[in-house]
Amino acid sequence: MADVQAREDPAARKQDVLARIQNLYTEDPDREIGVAGELVEEVAEENKSLLWFLLKQVRPGMDLSKVVLPTFILEPRSFLDKLSDNYYHADILGQAQTLEDPYQRFKCVLRWYLSGLYRKPKGLKKPYNPVLGEIFRCCWRDRQGDTYTYYVAEQVSHHPPISAFYVSNRKDGYVIEGSLLARSKFYGNSTSAILEGCARIHLLNWGETYVTTAPYAHCKGIVIGTLSMELGGKVHIICQDTGYQADVEFKLRSFLGGADQTNAISGRIKKGKDTIATVEGYWDGKIDIKDKRSGEESNLLDVAILKEQRMPRYLMKLENQQEFESQRLWLKVSEAIANDDQVAATEQKTIIEEAQRARARNLLSPWLPRLFRRDSRTVPEGIIDQGWRYNHVNTSPWQPEEIIEFEEGFVISSAMRRPERLREPPPPSDSDSRDELARRSKTSTRTMKQALIAIDSSLREQTVAIERLSKTVEAMSETQRALELRPQVRTPTASHTWDLFGGFILAMVLQALLNWLFYTKN
Q1: What are the pLDDT digits (tens) for 129-146?
Q2: Which residues contact 183 (CB under 8 A, 6 or more apart)?
Q3: Which of 215, 383, 493, 508 is 20 to 30 Å apart from 30, CA to CA?
Q4: What is the pLDDT of residues 13-47, one digit of tens each?
Q5: Is 193 helix (H, G, I), strand (E, B) or coil?
């Protein structure tokens, strides 16, 4: 009886979840973040022959995704893991959630976006290309509370290579979802790693969605000069709900450029066609923002301060990982690289890649991802969307009956209070201030907006289902018309079939309407 009461008690259930996290996860010991300035590496003499062997396989303009890379240039972790580097400061999005002014929220989201770029691998390295069906998960603990930010990712396609990911901390008010196609181009003495796709950042209590793109990584000095890497290209952060947009350019250092050009960025924040502010600085150093109307200049972020505020990351313990989780899958390759044994690393990497090819040959039907599904949605003009969405996506605001969010089996959900323990909120008293009533009105409006979005999504899914059913009925009608040509066989007419179909659709609509009315009443 005592165990049952403990499970029903919200505080006890919350402690059970926290205890489970501490039991299954361990803090990531890798705290290497790199230093400010140019990222360079000298290639050892014994590896130069391997590099020349690689160069013989490629030609200018060629996509490098199918080229076998030597293990000495590999960073000992998967690309799915590397994508999580953007979320060590996801708590900044929690701060954006508390701001009333939409412009201040936009600046906060921009600050978060730029905070995820400064981590650099030791030396010039490239992460492993994930195999089809590879999965990865981790979480970060909030430095000031007991909430966790959860991250799950899956390699949903191998040719072309597409990675899908989902990040959630609904208690603190944000969810992030996205998918990226990774491709690379070889230009002779340089190569670029390009990420095509976008991410969506949802601020739940405000009903706002921010669409972002990613810079590309440019590596030069492969044949002549020092091997170095920079970020380049123009990225976009767009919120169509408020009308604010930022365009930020990552500048490549010119051939004769000085140190002041290394890792420099510049950009502007606009609302509509009007420029509100400009942004200047270095993505691995300080970035300042200047208001165009007032002329006031302030610091947007300082990496030297920011890196001391990183949330600790937690990884699933190896003994608790599944077969295709990144760490476990690539464990022997990573161990060989750590031991500087390039022969063993190459052998183990080949075993994984050959196993993937064998699985692809033995597929009897199209492969379906485990955690994500195709879901095309509208995006701002000029933005590419790879079109993958988490199966268990939840972008509704945190509710009073929810106790704590958790991840289990790559499914992110929340523990709920027992229905009988819910209490109705007290009615507003005469002492309520005008500001408090206005705040409640805003909250109700945002909740209604979320509900309308959910209803719209459901209607779209029902429309697709009806279209499929219509095509099936049309095919049936064609078959029946063919059978009518045979005198000895009596078949129902097409009009009778459409009458049945119309009755079926009417019944579906009436049932949906009744469900909605009773759900609203409850």
Answers
A1: 999 999 999 999 998 777
A2: 63, 65, 160, 161, 193, 194, 196
A3: 215
A4: 899 999 999 999 999 998 877 666 666 655 554 44
A5: strand
Tokens 């890497």 correspond to 229
**Would strands 126-128 and 74-78 be described as parallel, antiparallel, or unpaired?**
parallel
> What does the block give as tokens for 102?
């939409």
Contacts by 262-268, CB closer than 8 A, 24 or more apart: 262/37, 262/38, 262/230, 263/36, 263/37, 263/38, 263/230, 263/231, 265/114
Structure tokens at 114: 């730029």
* Three-state SS annotation for 86-102: HHCCCHHHHHHHCCCCH
Q: Could you give the CA distance from residue 153 to residue 298 in angstroms, rounded to a whole number?
A: 36
Whether the per-residue pLDDT at 521 is higher than 60: the answer is no
As a whole number of angstroms, the distance between CA 232 and CA 212 comes to 15
Give the separation between CA 104 and CA 233, rounded to whole angstroms: 26
- E strand or H helix that includes residue 316: strand 313-316
Joined together, the tokens standing for residue 233 give 């290209």
pLDDT at 127 over 60: yes
Tell me, yes or no, if the pTM score tops 0.85.
Answer: no
Q: How many angstroms separate the CA atoms of 157 and 453, rounded?
A: 29
Q: Which residue has the tokens 């990712």?
A: 153
397: helix, coil or strand?
coil
Q: What residue type is 380 in one-letter code?
A: P
- pLDDT above 50: residue 423: no
- Judged by DSSP in three states, 333 sits in helix
